[in-house]
Amino acid sequence: MNNHVKNLATLLSFLLFCGSSGPLQAADRKPNVVLVITDDQGYGDVAVHGNRMIQTPNMDRLHSISVRLTDFHVDPTCSPTRSALMSGRYSTRTGVWHTIMGRSIMDSAELTIAEVFKAAGYVTGMYGKWHLGDNYPCRPQDQGFDETFYNGGGGVGQTPDYFGNDYFDDTYFRNGKPEKAQGYCTDVWFREAISFIEKNKERPFFTYLSTNAPHGPFLVAESYKIPYQKKGVQGSMAPFYGMITNIDENLGRLMKKLDELDLEKNTILIFMTDNGTAAGAGRRSRGKKAPGAAAKKWPGFNAGMRGQKGSSYDGGHRVPFFIRWPAGGIKGGRDIETLSAHIDVLPTLAQLCGIKIPEGPPIDGKSLAPLLRGEEPVWPDRTLFVHSQRIEQVKKGRNNSVMTKRWRLVGNKELYDITADPAQAKNIAANHPGVVKTLNGAYDEWWKSLSPVFTDTVHLVLGNPAENPANLTCHDWHTNNGPVPWNHGHIRKGPAANGFWAVNFEKAGKYEITLRRWPSQEKKKIGATKARIRIGTLEKSQAVNPEETGAIFKLDVPAGKARLQTWLQRTDGKACGAYFVEVRRVD
């Protein structure tokens, strides 16, 4: 969405609110929306789905009073799912196909769900995990959210996050500025979201509540973890379950607050997750012996599906989706088995709320509103696609699934009749060559439709007053060689790695660029004797005092897009890129 359209959206929002002579009257008021999405919680990580170990009474209660989309799919990993959810478009179209390496940054030209609601007069708030860009113009506050409080990167403890965060009493970012918080991360996100709801109870609001839990590292209070250990849940699965139980308690608090504020009936409440389970079905690390006399080891539960997070099988991308709106004709307590996906959420909510979607990039999703209201029980079959690339440049045929109501074509070669074989145990491609050919043809057309963005790169804008200075981190390095230090543990180890940032200097002028080994708030020594920087064809080297915290370059930089890369020659004999770079326009 370009700046002109965004400004018009903001103005329209203001006029709609002010023109009502105060808060909208109940008869005229559009429904509120609260969208809760958890991180790495799979379909089987909810008790009501058949998991007899995990405790999720509030998710179970919401399930009982909601419409459940039982064949709902997302991408197999975090950022791609979020970009599709925000835009209503397949993630690759938005510039997102990885969780790091500059490929988790959503193009600012996308029209987000927050921008859609803001243009319709809603106040918008975002709390928790964003994972679609940590720099202007890709931050949540740049993409339609009026109020934001979030962690950096893809989770607490990842490189763009405030250094040293560990899930408890951390520092997060309020509209881009660091702010100390008290309490466990999930409790903080729900507390902030509830405060936003209370503050805006007299006008329509859109709340995006995106937890970083139960994503690893699996950190949670002992009181949530130990009860599962005592029941025989081993390794990382015990804290993983504990994190989900904590989410469940907070979900209960949220539902109770909506009821207390008399907002429950006219609030569309959605609960969903972003990909298959990360630790609820295998992949368990060997932990210490559980306290007490442990029962027989719990094997985990994946609702009978094959695959987990990152997988092209259904276990990697089929997730829970509950939606409730008592005042809107959505009769709860029933399942809808129609094939659906993350790309459908934006158009569905827009139709349910009576909102016209402003002009923007073409949406791939389809409104499910008629299904949810029971107006169209017969739904035409459709073909949907998910894939997991996780590389610098996309590769055709990599980790994909082509889906219809009956069929799953995995990796362009394996065919499963999902209605007869939901566990995807028997590859029947040889028995149905015509189906394989048809689905591969659909995949080819889909891939062709994505191809215009394959050579595009989302550039971080430098020198704009909205973020000056801008703080770049190695989480967003582009590279085909070596690792990207994407979390604080990597930074502490100091790998000999490097890469470049794709940037766009908005204005030519004088810039002060500081290269660091550690984030500025740590005030730690750079530990390097020489530093070098290259911006396009502009290059400069200088000696460095290893006792200083950074190496400062003062450069005249031309306007425009460029690759920005740095080098540090360290006192330990290793060379690496500066993991943190601060860019300030000074004229």
Keywords:
single chain, 587 residues, alpha/beta, Alkaline Phosphatase, subunit A, Arylsulfatase, C-terminal domain, Jelly Rolls, ten-stranded mixed sheet, six-stranded mixed sheet, 26 strands, 22% strand, globular
How would you describe what is shown here?
The structure is a single chain. The protein has 587 residues and is of the alpha/beta class. The protein folds into three domains: 3-12 and 33-372, Alkaline Phosphatase, subunit A (3-Layer(aba) Sandwich); 384-453, Arylsulfatase, C-terminal domain (2-Layer Sandwich); 460-585, Jelly Rolls (Sandwich). Helices cover 21% and strands 22% of the residues. The chain contains eleven helices and 26 strands. The strands form five sheets. The protein has a ten-stranded mixed sheet with strand order 7-6-5-4-8-1-9-10-2-11, sandwiched between helices. Strands 17, 19, 21, 22, 24 and 25 form a six-stranded mixed sheet that branches. Helix 1 packs across helix 4 and helix 5 (185-199) runs parallel beside helix 7. It is globular and about 70 Å long.
Q: Supply the CATH class of the largest domain.
A: Alpha Beta
- What is the CATH topology of the largest domain? Alkaline Phosphatase, subunit A
Q: What structural class do you assign from the helix and strand content?
A: alpha/beta
> Main β-sheet, in a few words?
10 strands, mixed
Spatial gap, N to C terminus: 28 Å
Shape: globular
What is the total domain count?
3
Q: Say which CATH homologous superfamily of the largest domain is assigned.
A: Alkaline Phosphatase, subunit A
| Reported CATH architecture of the largest domain | 3-Layer(aba) Sandwich
Give the percentage of residues in beta strands. Answer: 15-25%
Enumerate how many helices there are, as a single number.
Answer: 11
Major sheet: order of its strands? 7-6-5-4-8-1-9-10-2-11
- DSSP strand tally: 26
Taking all residues together, what is the mean pLDDT?
Answer: 93
Rg calc: 24 Å
Stretches where pLDDT falls below 50 for ≥5 residues? 8-27, 284-295
Query: Helix amount, in percent?
Result: 10-25%
